[in-house]
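Minutes, project check-in

Agenda point 3 was the complex the collaborators sent over. CS summarized: two entities, 466 residues total, and the question is how they sit relative to each other. Sequences were read into the notes so everyone works from the same version.
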Amino acid sequence: MHVDMDAFFAAFEIRNLPVLKGKPVIIGGDPRFRSVVTTCSYEARRFGVHSGMPVAEAKRLCPEGIYISGTLGGYVYTSALLQKIFREFSPVVEPFSVDEAFLDITGCHRIFGNVENLVSQMKKMIREKISLTCSVGIAPYKIMAKMASSENKPDGLTIMDRADFRRIFSPRPVSSLWGIGEATEKMMNKRGIRTVADLAAWREKKLRAFFGKNGEWYYCLSRGKDESKVYSYEDRPEEKSMSHETTLGDDIYRIDKIYATLLWLADKVSRRLRQDDFMGKTVGVKIRSSDFKTITRERTLARPTDQARVIYQTARKLVPREYGPGIKVRLLGVRVSRLEKTQAERQLSLIDDRTGEKLSLTSMAVDRLRERYGDRIIKYAGAE
Amino acid sequence: MYQDMDEPIELIALFENHKLKPVRFRWNGRVYKISEVTGDWKTDVGAYKIHHYAVVDSSSNFFQLTYDERRTSWVISKVWVE
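CS then shared the predicted structure for the full assembly.
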């Protein structure tokens, strides 16, 4: 089962402020500054506004829209409440995003009589406790359930099997499939693949030959079929990387500002690593300039790390020399990959490297201060 | 649009069904009777919580009220202006 809250952020704001009901509400920040649309109400979508669109463009399409910068803390809190509700209906809940989750309801529906009753009771609980609605897809596979939940929004329920999937999706363009965006669609169109039926007609071997390892995924996608399990949070597969990136409010071109932002990002990534007991061996940076050209660079370290200073110093060296004066940067990201669990490695560094030990203890002290007093209590000198 | 504020208020609340329910508050000498709590949530600042309430008063004015555990005080954090 896939549960997807209906226009979650917008619905949260409308719930809090009922005067917004029926109006085009756009969550994404002040149109005077650079920001993108996070989400919008169904009324705003009728004007062509959608997630990911620059707010300035949304303003042109929907000048009467009501723009709200959002209540991140409220969304996070409500999302946690939702996860608790989901757990009343299945012991295996895999949060997919702040407003979506997969539930393995194999056998669970018998407790409620049938799946329709299970969904009805879950929706009732969500309405009573949070005053929001969701749409649900039920299918034998995760991919299919995810696509099914989008079929009858808002407050929908779609039960789909393989025959339903073929009937509904075959005539649709390939971009109607989960995860196939504009670039992939263009690539597929060049090969004569326009509809889901066209994609399903290709054999897996041929898809792999043309699209590499993604070919296997496209084969599954065209059939709505995948073998992946629903994982609860506790049983989730190990993380492969952690990263943070930020779109800057204004383009920057001074190298000191670029470095300051990298330090801030390195700090955030290192904190997450320590929280989840990971260290990483490869540090990467992502830089997008104002003409939307994006580059990524990475370097593998001799030893894994979870220290902001090490991640920052590595990231800093990865910034190509031409950045700085003349090239405006709109997005920066820092990524740490090739993750390992901490315990054994931290023991080694305490014994072998005095400097490493001091760095580690300092970071732990900073983490404790932030846990008690909040993130703003302390920051690295020079960080943005 | 929402107007951000940080104005101290005095507030009366009930404890009902294991939840806190703001009932009325005084701001700049005027008493506002809350007719509905439309939403509530909490955020963390370190080990402390900030409690947020979206409310509408008897004159259909909309406010966001917050209780900060660090300061043990209530403020109006936002007001909706047309």
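Noted in discussion: Chain B has one domain: 2-80.
Follow-up: revisit at the next meeting once the mutant set is ready.
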